[in-house]
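Box 3.1 A note on notation
Throughout this textbook, protein chains are presented in two layers. The first layer is the amino acid sequence; the second is a token string describing backbone geometry. Keep the layers aligned when reading.
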Amino acid sequence: MAEKEKLLLLLEKDIPFRYYCHYCLKLHRWHGRWSRSITPWYKESLPCKGSIANHLFLSPTFHIPYYYARLVMNRHFYGSKHGLSLDVLNKRAQFFSRLDGVVNSASQHVRIFNDQLLVLSSMHLQGKSALLRNCIDSYGDAVCKHLTLLQGFPCFSPMQLPELAKKGNAPGQFLACDPAFRSCTFCPTDYTINIVWKGEKKEFNVKVLVYRGLGDCHTPSDWHWRTMSTLYPDEELSSAYSLYHQPGSVRDQWNKAGGITKGMTS
């Protein structure tokens, strides 16, 4: 089996419009029209149904199927006829809503740096204290599989960011904080959070930037993708995995690639 995979991986580099499927061990044809939709199985049958299940759900409005990430990186490594443009992962990445008096906006951008796929998500919520607390605790987005904005339940779901946890006995209150820089202990995810009290409006302003490192996406078994898509990774903490994966390393890579993208949520 290993010899077959090795051969198909070599053929993938040479044959345009083909990609290797780790689920059925075959070369499949990909279609240019996939660049118009990140959910093509709504319009046609994928060659391998197993590939549908392996997704990164980064927010209610943005997700990355593994085979899309692979095709984007194949284009990066082997040329334009071997995969999809990076722009396909930026599509449908803008979100804005007003829910129960709370303004909620988000945007996501993707880059390749040092042959690694990076994703930056910006989440911005603003509203009256009690209303904002209810919105975040009930509908807050995930930071990764292990951390979330909403009120988490550590036994079976992600844990709430400590900066957003309720403080003292005053319900609905937040503690203002300057940008705090933290990391997930299980997967290659860094985040910054800033909580500001807008006294003139009597509102809190919460902004979270999330930096995710997806690796080279060469296999869904890669440490980056595996820990990013697993709630309980069966391995050491990310900081012990490698010097390359120390806390803050993903954010540093994004900044070296050019910093915050213009037009992101502010």
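Residues 94-256 form one domain. The mean pLDDT is 83.
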